Input
Amino acid sequence: MSMENWEPVKKLSSRSKLGTVWMVRRSKNGQTETGYFKFSNLKNERYVGPLPGNELLAYHLASRLHLPAARVEVAKIEGQLGIVSLARPVPQIYKWTQLNRRIYHNISSFILRPERLLKMFVFDIWICNIDRHGGNLLVYPVGEKYDFYLIDHGLSLLGAVQWQGFSWDHPHWDRVVGYNRNYVRGLTKYIRNYDQLEPYVKEIQRVSYEELEGAADSVPLIILSHENKRVVKQLLLSRQKKLHIIVQKWIKDYKRTRKE
Output
């Protein structure tokens, strides 16, 4: 947990419901690190619940699955307690939406280890992420291809539940096309059938209860209360058990909606 040394550079946005995002920097081991700071207040908690807790827990879960996600750590800056999402120290970073269009039609040729995008897709279903779009997937060149990493998970887990107003166990969350059609461009064309996604469904279903409990309990109580931890564990366990059913239903629903 890092509670100091970060210095604010500028406020990047003041999104009315999600709150303010600050660009911050610090010097560490002779290097300058850049990050993006988010924090809860009475206003945004009304819409997204424990935003820093959602972000930190999603990061821990992504790390457990070896998904490339921005490192997230707790920080206190100018009296505000929240989380910093660290930018990768690479010369050029782009949003997925900024890529050349030809990449969307041939992901396997231009993206390093593109199967991780399939794992990301299943992971997002598991954690009820309603906000995965091209702006929340960052890419950077590696030779003639691109690598990527995930950011912004405030509208997953309890953030999704709070935002959409359905309890975590409501049938609403069993039908992905009912709560999220905001797909990363090109990805749905890359997904042809359930067989491509099944290995990642099984990988998530192999995560033990002890690992889930450890991930949730590693989030400081000051940003994720006992009650919120209890609820989010129930959400994750329930969706883990029926993840194959939810994903299979998405395949059927998506094919049907494309025909309509």
Observations:
- The two ends are 49 Å apart (CA to CA).
- The first strand starts at residue 7 and ends at 15.
- The chain has a mean pLDDT of 93.
- The chain is about 40% helix and 20% strand.
